[in-house]
Every structure is written in C-alpha cells, then in structure tokens.
Amino acid sequence: MAAQCGRSVPEAAMAAERPRSLFALSAAAVSRSMARACGAAGPLPGHLLRGLLPLLTVFHLERAEDAARRAGLSTQPIWRKLWDDVMKTRPPNSESITCWRKKFLETFFSNVLHGVLDVSSDWRLNDRHFSPLLHSSPHVSQLTLCNMLQGAVELTAKHNHEVLENLASSLRILKFQHLLSCDQSIRRSLVLLLHRLIHHGSVSQVSMYSWPVPDTVLLVLILSMSAGFWRSGSTLAYHGSLCDLCREEDKAQSQETAQEGAERGCNAEQEGSDGEKQKGSSEEADALMNSVLSGPRSPPLQNPVCEDTSTKMPCDHTSIQEGSPTCSSSEQLSCHPVPRKTRRRLKPAVGRKRRCLRRSRGHYSDSEDLYDFVFTVAREDNSGLLDKTSTTEGENTENWTSSSTGSPCAGYAGCKKRGSAGIFSLKTAHRFRSVSTLELFSIPLTGEMCRTLSNLLSSWVSLENLVLSYNGLDANISCILSGLRALSRHPECRLRVLRVSDIFSHMPCMELVRCVLSALPQLHTLSVSFDLKNQLEGNRPEGNSNCSEVEIPESCLEVLEIRFPREPLHTEFLLPVLKASKSLQQLSLDSATLPCPQELGLLLEVLKECTPNLKKLSFHDVNLAEHQKEVLLLLQDPGLQEITFSFCRLFESSSAEFLSEIINTVKRNSSLKSLKLPGNRLGNDRLVALADIFSEDSSTSLCQLDVSSNCIKPDGLLEFTKKLEGHIQLRGGQIPFTHLRLFQNWLDQDAETAQEALRRLKAVCSVVNDSWDSSQAFADYISVM
Q: Signal peptide: which range, if any (predicted)?
C-alpha cells in the first residue's frame, strides 16, 4: 500500500498528524497512494474507511462517496470541516444546508473561477488528478458572474469545453451582479455562454443585482437571450465552428424542408430562388447581430414603442397592416419603405429543456412578434435612425387601467410614428428555449428599457415568476403591465408569480393591486411593496377613477402581500380584490395605517365572508395596540393555521388580563399551528407566561413560536424552559411544540445562563437563534434618535 507515487499530502501535513498507533500509521501510508486506496475503498471495512476518509484529498474524497455510503458512513462532517478550514466563513442559513458536499464544491467552483481561492493553499485541494473547475462543475446548480464578466470569458475558453458541457446539465440559476460595461470580445463570450446554458442547457432562472448604471446593450442582450431569442448563425460560432446543437437542428430542418418540397413537387428554379432569398436574409441578420455585439458609439435607438398620448393611433398590433412601410418620423433622414415580405409564424418558446425550435410554416401572427425591437436598441452608428419625436419617459400610450384588448407597449409601428428602421427580420430569427424566472434587483430601468422589457414579456410564455425590485419604475410600470396583459391573453401563458417593489409608489397600493389582477387573473402570487409615497405628490394619481372602477374578474390568487407606504388601509378598496380571490390562502399586510377604530373589525368581517380558504394572515408594523378585541377574534378563528403579529405594539397599552386572554384563546384553538410575535416587547415575564399555552389542560396544536426581537434576557429564557419542561412532564412527554425562533434578543448579557437555557430547550424543540450584539444594537438605536 505504501508504493512509491506522487505524494498528494505534504510532508509537513503528515508530520502534523503524528500517528501514534498502528492503525494511524497504516492510514497515513495509504493516503500516499490515493488512487489505489480509492480503488480498494469498496472492500475495506467500515471502521478502516472511517479513519481513511479524513486523510483524502477533495478529488479522492468525492470519488469515495459511494463507497462510504455503502458502508453506512456519512462524509458530511468532513465536507463541513473542509468548508470551515478553506472558506473560513459561516454560510448564510447554514442550518438549512442539507448537503455540505454540494455546498462546498459549488462555492469552491465559484471562488476558483473568479480567482479568489488558491488551490495550493490547502493540501486537500492540491492533487495532480484534480482539475478544480472540471471536477466541481457537476455540483454547480447556481452561479454568479460579476464585474467585467471574466467568468464568462474563462468558461467559454476552448480548454474549458467539458466544464461548460457539465454546467449545461447541472446549472439551474444564473446570476449577474455589479456588472460593468465590456468590450465586444467579452460580449461574444457572454453570447456563447448564454446560448449554451439557456438555449441548449438547463438554466431556468436569470437574476440580475445591483447595476446602478446599466449598459443598455449588455442588459438587452441578457434579457433577450433569457427570453429565448437569438439567431443561430455566424454570431454563435464556437471556436470557428457553429454550435453543434444548432447545426444538428438546422440539418434536420433542411432535410425535412427538402422532403416536403419534393412531396409538393417544387421545381429547381423555385428552390434556387428561395435559397438566394434566405441567403440574403441570413447575411442581413448576421450584420445586425454583429452590430449589437459591437455596441453603440452613439446614443442607442429609441425603441419604436409606446407613443405618447398625443398620438391618435392605438398601441395595437393590428393598427398597422403587415408589410406596410416603416419609416422614421424625420422624413429627411435616410429612410426607405421596408419591402413587403411574407413573414413566418414562430412557435412560442417554452420553459422545458429542448433543442432549438423550428420555425413553423404558417402565416406570421402579430400576437407573437416580440423581436422587432431588440436589434434596434444597440446598433452602431445609429444617429441617423433616431426618432426625433420620441416620447418622454413615463408617458403612456393608453389608459392601461382599462380592460381593453390593446396590445402591449410593443415595438410595432402602430405604437409610434413609424420609426422602425433597422428592424431584425422575423424570417431569419430563431426562437430557443427560455427561462421561467426573471429577477431584476436594484437595476434602474429607463422608459426605453421598460418598453423593451414590455415587448419581451408580451410573448414570453414560459415565464412563471417575475420579480422587479427597486427599478425606479414609477409611471413606467404601466408599460410593464401592458406587456403582461398581452402575455396573459396567450393560451400558453404560465405566469403565476409577480413581485413588484420600489422606493416610491406611483399610485395607491390598492389601485395597483386591482389593476394587476384585472390584467393577470391567472396569478397565484402577487406581492406589491413600496417604501414611500411619490415624492411629487402633485403627480400622484389619487383619484384614478378608471382604475378604481375597473371590474376584477374571478382570479386564481392564493397569496397576496401588500406593503403600504404608510397609506391608510381602506377595507372598501380591498373588498373587490377579496371577493374576486376565493382561492386566497395567505394575506400579508405591512406598514398600513388604520384610519378609524372600526376599520380592522370591518376587515375581519370581510375576510370571514370572502376568503373561506384563508390559512395564513400576517400583520407587520401595523399599530394594533387599541385593537385587542380584534386580535382575540383572529386568534380564535378556526380556519387560520398561521398568524403573525410582527412589530404591532400588541402590549403597548394592554393589561395583564389581555395576555391571559391570548394564552387561553390559543389553548382552546386546535387549528392554529404557528404563532409569530416578533418585535412586541414581550420581555421576560410575558415569555414565561406563554409557556402555559402547553399546560396539561391545553388542546393547542401550536408547533411553531417566534419571539424574536422581544427584549428577552437569559434568565427569562431559562425560566421559560423550566416551565415548559414541567408542562411536558405533566403531559407524559408529549407536546406538539417543535420550533422556537429567538433572533435578536438580549441573550449575550449572560452567556453561561443563555447556553444552559438553549441546551435544555434544544432537548425539547428545534431552536433558531443568532449571536446578536445587543449593546451595539442599542448604540445604533441611540445614534439615530
């Protein structure tokens, strides 16, 4: 076993082990012949394998995984120790990590790719058989690309071809963060990467974060390819040859076309003519692709979308006939009518993994044209094509609050004064596989970019989840909703989750909710969140009668979350939404103010009448100090399984009797499973009293209790634990209680007492807490007073 071979374990590391027993000496000798040891790992006894595993490098530890599993051994402690020794950080949500092997290798891949980890820094990473990117890539399900996209360049390099193929199978989530403008060669690498991972891969989610000044060309490129749109031509050449998968698809399509042509008796002259036309269209398309990749030297084109309110033509796909000439509004510029061509209808992209979709041979359908705008955004030397009469950002083309069947704010000539020169030909476009989740966080979207996104959304039928967070939409949200309305009319629309959050709200939250549901009745989850009212109160549409009066069709809504920018909660505005949402199971109301004492009672009546399936109800930062009766009514509701009163000042002006009534009500409610009371200043005494919920005479089914941010000290937690242990003993050791959350309490004031309380609590239930510095938090609080 001690055969001479390349030593993977440095002598210094072996000396540090200092084996003192025959077993340890044997294990050290075996570790010098890793390949032979792993090959014999199967027959090795479990106790011998247990001692051998910690001595293996990452390469051989990963290969010994199956042998360890067959021997009934877990490698999780070894991978966790590797994480601690190599990464030297505590991962977020570490308590929820189920596989440390995957977590380590996924993070290891990212760190090596971005050059922040040196494999020679630890002997367990330094193995002559181990290719860091190649061997860790099968474990990567999410990847983040940053800054100048150096990672994209590295992954598309010729020597990493196998790595990219592995990622095409394993990667599900692709993230972009802190992106910067880049040159043409890097954009080409990004195109190759997105084409392989999205169009011919398994990526189902694209997320972009923190891009204060987004590069228009780069943003459009990522969005359009995420939507499944690009051309498989010379632009997608991979190291001198076309994408193999695209080439296979084109070959199959050509064969089928030839077969159909022969069956129809097409003569050689017609086929030759068609071939010449296709060649010309292909060359034109490739020129446009290259111009997109090269980036603009002058300001980008205004998209031919969303005419201002002075334009009389409606924003509708059918407002201009197919084949009509399209010109810039500046007639003096070089502008010629677009020749009449027969367009082909494209199949919509779908989210499931498959090869490039063939262009169908039916007539072109207006409702599926989302491509025209994409290639006008970043054309080089486009100053002569700018539409001098472009609308200002935020202006709308239609009263989007109505239920009209107008088209989205799309790049069609009917939406603007015929300014669509340079449009990419649908005849030469391909539609590929697209992602099902799109998330944009902290990326300012101009009016032009909102119109671009609206066009993409209008036929992005594979899209299931859309998250727009802090994008500065303001009035441009109308354009986004216009595209979503067009999408909802598509029979294959899959959009089920929409989350919109921003600093300023353009209109009252309830009006926005009603508009969204009227446009997207098939939504299952809707989240609307705003921090502040519009800073220009004069521009705020307080009395939008069209939106207030719009009828909401019966919806499929199951989850509704509203964060009000300190707006009053008027139940009369919420009533139509609840009436249309018979399937609602979860309702969350955040930062709302109650205009009168009767408002909460009215809300409870409406909830009882209109939402028979409601299971979860949450109030956050809503002052309920004067609504004790309504709080008790909610706690005794037999339909609710989870209730949250977060930072609701429950005990601000209450008496001790109120707490007793809460405890007795919960004790009698056998349907309530979770009670969350963070930020209500329970303190030690009230926490100890809550232990009586599990007394011997209780019929409660409560299994989760959240008392985070409640000024709880170690001695109070210990008393709660002792009282809880007493109730458990009286009930024969059986209580439903399984989870306790203790974030941000004052447990650091007496570490020894806190540790004893936590140790005893963990024998009863699962405890989730943190190492919160209460003194620093208090200092921060004082500093901002």
A: none
